[in-house]
Amino acid sequence: MSRPIEAASNVKIIPAMSSEELKQAKYRQTRVAAYCRVSTDHEEQANSYKVQIDYYTNLINSNSEWTMAGIYADEGISGTQTKNRKEFNKMIRKCRQKKIDLVLCKSISRFARNTVDCLEYIRELRLLGIGVIFEKENINTLAMNSEFIISLYGSFAQAESESISKNVSWGIEKSFKEGKVKYVMDKTLGYRMGEDGKPYIVEEEAEIVRRIYRMFLDGLSMQRIADIMQAEGAARRSGCTTWNRSNVNYILKNEKYAGDAILQKSYTIDCITHKRVKNNGEKNKYILHDCHPAIIDRDTYNRTQQELTRRCTIKQRSDKAVTAQGRYASKYALTDIMICGECGTPYRRVVWNSHGKKLPVWRCINRLDHGNRYCKHSPSLNEEHLQQAIIDAINTAYTHNTAFLQSMENNISIVLNDEDKNNTERVRIESRLAEIDKARDDLIHLVTSGSVGEDSLDKEFEALNDEESYLKTQLEAMKSQTEKRDEVRYSIMSAVEGIGEMENTMVDYDEVAVRKMIECIKVLSKTEILIIFKGGYECNAVVEK
């Protein structure tokens, strides 16, 4: 005897029909229901409501292959939310109970004004084998092929998206022109609201903000910055002198400090209840640049955002690495930039006891954690000798300033040239996507007007959908390339700035200068390292034994 199979909690079982039910279904008439809805604010509309009921009653009863399965009519109820439409929900329950085979409706807008509801119910009814005929649009959802459905659904969703986008954009633009942008500055250190309703800078607090940005770009971690602020008794916006990592993070990521404002950080998910949720990319956001005085200049703010991204993505320093690095640590610059030339894993600072004295050295993490399992020949480097080799390399770049700057200029030219090509291609792709949208709308119009059957256009729909998918993938790739170019640009600027700030050759090792100028240090042997400056300039340095 076989054991019964239990369904998972998220599985809904649709019972199989008995042989008698299958026999009856094969020869019985099609059970047809109609759904109609009309507002009853006026007597004329009330008459229309009665006319619809009479119309569908006569239509169903006059077809010998159909049998009446009910007229479901909601009177004077908005169509924006299906839960308020009792008759509609009753009809859907009957469909789920397999008591209806076909639904008639005057138009899509009568069935549901909310696109999501409309698509969800159409999909569910199709899975149940139940079609919906929209008379105005000349659509039978059960008869449509898959490619046409994809195109039709895309058209619905696109139309709603464009409508919302236009309304929101217009409202934002209108409010901004009228000076009605609502600033929220009650938690923003460095700003207060003026009598004119616009923010102004509180210089004493603004200097704290600027210092936080400087320390972060100099390589300090958020926690270290918070510790310094608290030790110095610096006051936050609330007046509290207790600082933590989150307080610093909020300041570093706040676009208001660059003079900008981001609108639609949250959005309404229900136009009836007005419930709002955080916008994590589901909707467009609108950035208003230079709409109030900036505390942080644009270049510093952009470099900070790049550095935030870089620190969050620190894992493996090279493709060779087989083990990952942990969270960004700011105490030693080399922890973040020095890698093993053999296995690609970062180096770590350790302290050895040598003849009763403590000797700091740098060692490949693979060798420290796994012996010679992954890395067999990486050397340990004396910290003092390593730092002197780095000082020598920086001084070489400083004394050969012309060659260094020429290398940076060449790299900037390459970046700008790639950017121009990228922009041209992006414009071409966006133009073609607009053409695809129009072509698809034209095909949908041909089908819904009855001029041609959707089967004959299946290949055209498929080709348009495939091309659209390919072009959107290209756009995403171009966006990623743009972000990488920005990183290169800021790296070059950082290296040039570091060399430019040097008044003379470096004598003592400087953690801040190393972070600012050097992208990577690759350990080649016990006596040689390769130093790669930000922007691409490279030089080899000798490490004393």
Automatic annotation (TrEMBL):
MF-aspect GO terms:
DNA binding; DNA strand exchange activity
- In this protein, which residues make up the domain named Resolvase/invertase-type recombinase catalytic? 31-179
Q: Which InterPro entries match?
A: DNA_bind_recomb_sf, DNA_bind_recombinase_dom, Resolv_N, Resolvase-like_N_sf, SSR_resolvase, Zn_ribbon_recom_dom
Q: Which UniProt keywords apply?
A: Plasmid
In the UniProt record, does the keyword Signal occur?
no
A single Pfam family it belongs to is Zn_ribbon_recom
Query: Which residues does the UniProt record annotate as the domain Recombinase?
Result: 188-314
Q: Which domain of life is it from?
A: Bacteria
Q: What is this protein called?
A: Resolvase domain
Which species is listed as the source?
Answer: Ruminococcus albus (strain ATCC 27210 / DSM 20455 / JCM 14654 / NCDO 2250 / 7)
**Source taxonomy:** Bacteria, Bacillati, Bacillota, Clostridia, Eubacteriales
